[in-house]
Amino acid sequence: MPVTFRLWDRGFEEDKQDLRNFLGTKYTKVSMIHRTGVFRHHEDMVNMVQVVELPLWRGKASLVLLLPFHVEPLARLDRILTPKQLGEWLKQLAGISMAISLPRTTLTSTLNLQKHLSALGLTDAWDGETADFSGMAAQPGGAKGKLHLGGVLHWASLELSPEGGPEEEEEEEEDEVVGRPKLFYADHSFIVMVKDNATGALLLMGALDRAEGAGLHDEL
Which biological process annotations from GO are given for this protein (predicted)? Predict the structure, then answer.
């Protein structure tokens, strides 16, 4: 059974959720969550994308979001998203007053890694004649013979919800909001990453281009 870890340093306001349109590959009505505060942000006017970093797990990790300026498929952003480009965006992040709005949703992915592992040279593990994992597990019914891998599956899930972690209650200081905050309104397709702040490694990378909800109908 999957376990959900609520890792926001501070959660979103429970009483400020509302139904809004999400304009992805399918237009739907979704619950949006909101909060204000000082966050690290960069606006790339050339590539027309906003980059924002939200702290997770007491600053040990970060959620990095890439939001195009306009409603569009993510193919263009995917083409320019290289390790070098991402590094340049992250270097230019600066803390500013922001109002963040995100769809309340869950991103999940299940991948069969056999093709990717084989490309890295792990080929014998799938070969019933070559591989031998019989020392690692007993075979059903006491059968004898070699064991080989039939598949390697990777499952990942990321929940965007308003709840913060248990340490949130210990925090007494509020984020400072100065002047008119910059809007980061994620009501259309965006790319999401989880980054380990100690090493800079990306722990998760995906995209939200469809949020589950009631479909919208064209108004005449």
Answer: collagen fibril organization
Mean pLDDT of the chain: 81
As a three-state string, the secondary structure of 3-56 is: CCCCCECCCCCHHHCEEEEEECCCEEEEEEEEEEEEEEEEEECCCCEEEEEEEE
Task: Using alpha carbons, select from 105, 117, 113 the residue that is nearest to residue 207.
Answer: 105
Task: Please identify which residue in the block is written with the tokens 């300026």.
Answer: 69
Backbone angles phi, psi at 145, to 5 degrees: 135, 175
10 Å CB burial of residue 17 (0-12, 13-18, 19+) is middle
Average pLDDT over every residue of 159-174: 57
